[in-house]
Amino acid sequence: MAAAAASADMFDEIVMAEERFRGEGYQEGYAEGSHLGAVEGRRYGSLHGAKIGSEIGSYLGFALTWQCLLQKCRDDKNSKKIRALDSLIGMIQKFPYEDPTYDKLQEDLEKIRGKFKQVCSMLNIQSDFRIGTERSSLTF
């Protein structure tokens, strides 16, 4: 009877080996996939965040420069441009840089882009913002 029980246990181990190996393989694959997914997500997030930061920084530098230039010759025509620049600067300063989970990030970014285009139109400047892999630039 002991030999029959040992024989049955051996066959159970053989039959169950496939199930056991599948379970172990799944666990190993899941752990590896989770790790690689986190690494890839972090890399993508850093790259995308850097592009947005570069774009917003360019808009802010542009707006501050023009605000300074227009302050020197204040008149009714320039005061409207200055108000638009002040609005753009305010939007940029309120942009939540530190919160990547902000649910209206894309919406606010589109509003800033729209305001930037409006300011460029008021200043009679052709705006062409491009983001490259190595650098971003504003061209006029």
Automatic annotation (TrEMBL):
Domain of life: Eukaryota
Domain Essential protein Yae1 N-terminal span(s) in chain numbering: 25-63
Matching InterPro entries: Essential_protein_Yae1_N (IPR019191), LTO1_adapter (IPR052436)
Pfam families documented for this protein: Yae1_N
Family according to the record: Belongs to the LTO1 family.
Designated name of the protein: ORAV1 protein
Organism for this UniProt entry: Centropus bengalensis (lesser coucal)
